Amino acid sequence: MHMKSFLAWVLFFCVGLASQQALSQAPAAPAASAAPEAAASASEAATVAAPAPVAAPAPVVAAPAPAASAPAPLTHPGLVGAETLNGADTAWMMTSTALVLLMTLPGIALFYGGMVRKKSVLNVMACVIAICAVVSLLWFAVGYSIAFTPGSGALGHYLGGSERLWFTGLDYVKDAQKVAVSHIAPNIPESVYAMFQLTFAIITAALVVGSFVERMRFSAMLIFMSLWTLIVYAPIAHWVWEPNGWLARMGALDFAGGSVVHINAGIAGLVCAYVLGPRHGYGREPFTPFNLGLTMAGAGMLWVGWFGFNAGSAVASDGRAGLAMAVTHIAAAAGALSWMAAEWMVRGRPSLLGLCSGLVAGLVAITPAAGFVSPRAALVFGLVAGMACYWGATGLKRLLNADDSLDVFGVHGVGGIVGSLLTGVFASKAISGVEGDLLTQAIGAGSVMLYSLFMTAVALWVTSLFVSLRVSEASESDGLDITQHAERLGT
Amino acid sequence: MPSNEKIAIAAHLHVLLRRKTGRVTDTEWMASNREYAAEVARFAREKSVEDNHPDLAVWADKLEEIMATPDPKPRVPLVQMVSEAVKERAVPAPREAPPPDRLTPARSIDTEEEVYPESGFIESTFGAIFGDSESHRDRKHRDPNAPRYVKSLR
Q1: Which of A65, A243, A333, A406 is the most exposed place for a label (fewest CB within 10 A)?
Q2: Which of A286-300, B41-55, B92-106 has the lowest mean pLDDT?
Q3: Where are the alpha helices (DSSP H) in A139-254?
Q4: Where are the domains of chain B?
Q5: CA–CA separation, A37 vs A35, rounded Å?
Q6: Torsion of CA A455, A457, A459, A462, to 10 degrees
Q7: Exposure of B30 by Cβ count < 10 A (0-12 exposed, 13-18 middle, 19+ buried)?
Q8: Residues of A whose CB is below 8 A from B147
Q9: Do A393 and B111 touch (CB under 8 A)?
Q10: pLDDT greater than 80 at residue B102
Q11: What SS3 state is found at A286?
């Protein structure tokens, strides 16, 4: 029954792909050539101006004519000459893409896998890999176009257009030396930019897994994540990171995804936890983590990979990316120590899980601010986030009374909210060219929270029409490894 | 440490039970634990009747009798007594802190769950800066066997 539902999705996907191939006859859109201008926008893709040619004085011949007026900047994805691309930026963005993907595979897989009980470790890892695969295909099919094309008219403020549907675009024409670029990042190939953004979509969906581990049916998870990526993640990414998005136009600052990724995932996780209900034995039995060593290994990958997450969001290998890297590291360190101190005072001793959680909290908080704040401010981000997220994972969790199994809302949701609001306080015009505004940040965070809450619930409801969301009690008791995958850990 | 006599009687009864009934017993525990000794004696009497071994009953009585007598005070070597007396005169013994109340497990400030014993971070760090706080002095020792990972991982 569940296999049939999944096959129905696959069939729909293939029909769409085939029809798009049949209909797609128009040549590539005419490209605007020449160097793109730097655009200091509120979006996370701050472009870098290609160096303007310096007019050297001609000693003999007549002075060169003044340079022709610079071509209008791109407003849509299109083809440009390959010579306009920046090799260093491209190399760094490809590296960042790999780093961010490493954060998910195997960073999140290990981080979460070590925290669940032994009988569900493989299921968690399977969920992460499956999400990577499903989101990847959906991204190039539909998601990237919805998120990162400007759309048209007023609707374009909320949803992208169809220019990049069904794996189109991302062209590389060797003979003509033309490469497709995104208007948001004209200094790098669009294929690289789309891949980079894909890794963000993947990790956001993977983060949500932590809220419903040990009880969600695998087929339901696949369907839910497919819907969620398209109807929740992609529109929110459009609002915040597409220059035509309404939050970007309003001036909400989110350098690398404090709201798009973390608040979004946190709220979605909370909704999943409420809808699916608590695990059997929750609140009565201890749910001992399988192996916190795996969790630490995953946390280490997250810390290092986050350099790609934040510094890569500069979409250039320049001073701003370097600053983003530094503030990311400072915030992670401060977050780890801050959580550790809070836990030491409350529980009487520090823990490895606390250190790992604290560093993630610091990283989450600095994410929206990485390209806007100074290192000194990053220290504040980390210290505040460590304490706030500790409360989020303990006191607030008890208040909310939801079995958010791995504290997705407590760490990512609370950390994202803290980081987004602090960005409004600490954003420096000298660094980024823009000033922060606390009210604007609050509106941005609140909008994302409300939309994610409502649409996640819709996605769960739609999923429940096809398959049961939760496994049976017996399956849950036996463990999802054996009941969903017929596999066991070796020892 | 049980007295030599207790161990001797327990050992003798252990051998008898082993030979005549096949039952294996713990000699040292028999000489230390009254309940265990009483149970072994009961078993020995039962077997003495069933299998017609009167000596089992005799030694069971001896065991019960010796277990009822209190252990003599342990003898402290003279050298040790002298050295302790010299030390006490040189350095007065520090006042000991009141023993921790282990009957009531401590609970976290913001939760009701039992938590692990303190590490001394507060006392060594904040105590030095701000002075000892009453809440930390009064904080009871926590039960190291308190359940963790119930309702929350962190």
Answers
A1: A65
A2: B92-106
A3: 144-148, 190-208, 218-228, 234-241, 246-250
A4: 4-68, 99-147
A5: 7
A6: -130
A7: buried
A8: 286
A9: no
A10: no
A11: strand
Indicate yes or no: CB of A354 within 8 angstroms of CB of B154.
Answer: yes
Q: Is residue A320 part of a domain?
A: yes
Whether A347 contacts chain B with CB within 8 A? yes
User: H-helix or E-strand containing A393?
Assistant: helix A375-393
Which one of B125, B126, B153 would you mutate to disrupt binding with A, by most A Cβ within 10 Å of its Cβ?
B153
Q: How far is C-alpha A57 from the geometric centre of its chain's CA atoms?
A: 48
Residues of B in Cβ contact (< 8 Å) with A345: 121-122
Q: How many CA atoms within 13 Å lie on the side-chain side of A17?
A: 12
CA–CA gap between residue A480 and residue A475 (Å, rounded): 7
Q: Is A251 in contact with A42 (CB distance < 8 Å)? A: yes
So what's the ipTM on this one? 0.72
Give the pair of three-digit tokens for residue A216: 């969600």
- H/E stretch holding A179: strand A178-181
Whole-number Cα distances in Å, A152 to A412, A447, A476: 33, 22, 47
3-state SS, B32-87, equals HCHHHHHHHHHHHHHHHHHCCCHHHHHHHHHHHHHHHCCCCCCCCCHHHHHHHHHH
What pTM does this model have? 0.73
Q: Name the residue with higher pLDDT: A41 or A373.
A: A373
Out of A149-158, A315-324, A348-357, B127-136, least confident range: B127-136
Distinct helix (H) and strand (E) counts, chain B: 8, 0
Let me know if residue A23 belongs to a domain: no
E strand residue ranges, A8-154: 78-81
Residue found under tokens 């507060």: B122
Stated as kind and residue range, the H or E segment containing A178 is strand A178-181
The verdict on residue A37 lying in a domain is: no
Q: Assess if residue A61 is contained within a domain.
A: no
Check: CB of residue A93 under 8 Å from CB of residue A312. Answer: yes
Structural domain count of chain A: 1
Task: From residue A18, give the alpha-carbon distance in Å to each of A136, A166, A226, A308, A330.
Answer: 18, 9, 19, 35, 49
Number of Cβ pairs closer than 8 Å across A and B?
64
Provide, as residue numbers in chain A, all residues whose Cβ is less than 8 Å from the Cβ of B115: 346-348
Q: Which amino acid does the sequence have at A208? A: V
Question: Domain of A399?
Answer: 75-485
Phi, psi of A180 (to 5 degrees): -75, 135
- Residue A92: the pLDDT is 98
pLDDT in tens, A366-409: 999 999 999 999 999 999 999 999 999 999 999 999 999 999 99
Distance (Å, rounded) from C-alpha A222 to C-alpha A213? 13
A394 Cα to chain B: minimum distance (Å): 7
Q: Dihedral sign, CA of A391, A396, A397, A399?
A: positive
Are B40 and B63 in contact, with CB atoms under 8 Å apart? yes
Residues of B in contact with A398 (CB under 8 A): 111, 151-152
